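Checklist before submission:
- one chain only
- standard amino acids only
- sequence pasted in full

Submission:
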Amino acid sequence: MASYQDQNAADQYATDQQVTDAQPKDSSIAIRATDIVKNYGSGETFVHALRDISVSFQRGVFASIMGPSGSGKSTLMHVLAGLDSVTSGHILLDGTDITRLNDNELTILRRSKIGFVFQSFNLLPMFTAEQNILMPLTLAGKKPDSQWFHELVTSLGLTSRLNHLPSQLSGGQQQRVAIARALITKPSIVFADEPTGNLDAVSSAEVLTLMRKMVDDYHQTIVMVTHDATAASYTDRAIILADGKIVADQPHPQAQEMGDMLTRIMQNIVQQRSESHSLTPDAVSDASVSE
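Returned file contents:
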């Protein structure tokens, strides 16, 4: 009889194959992860953060990674983006195995091929919106493509805000500047970590609509970590993690559907913890709190 780990790996491989087979055969893959394991600590502090994950993301797709708190979704994004190392497994970005690169090589690769959008915007307060957008090119010692810059800021509605400091911009405008900064180098892939987490509902919808536009109009690849089922509904595909494993791979996710799925997953986790550790009712209630 196959072991639990063997069966889990087989199930994940089958899921990845189904998704890959559903895509056009001539589509290129922006990034592929194979048998990714990520462990932290040792002894009593040991954490099995990612368990033999295999997944790929097609170029020109807007995908979301979801899951309850502690599911491994942020860890998966960090290893895919080369911000953290893997314990084992391989990650191919544009055909380059980033798990084999040293720190300096990873820095160069991230600067040229990966864009980042963060929840906290991470804009430099002493620089204008334009200077913040151009910062990746400035650090790399490269000149901007003026046509692409103009097209980008126009599409994002930033033309009249380029000379403003971050403190003079609304939260939604700051996130649009962050998106422009992520795209200015024409990266192979953009990773967005809870990009609407600090925004109100209207600004969130604006930012998500613009990210959707970047995918549809410019064939950009965006992978977004989010706990928000409504945010996931803007994406083409939702990867759901629980306990470091992919438990669902949902095409064309809908808000209600994803919300219900996350609730069921959280309930299952609470039940399993209760059975395994004989949690008290109060402890079960505490464990059920999601992000």
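Reviewer check: The first helix runs from residue 4 to 22.
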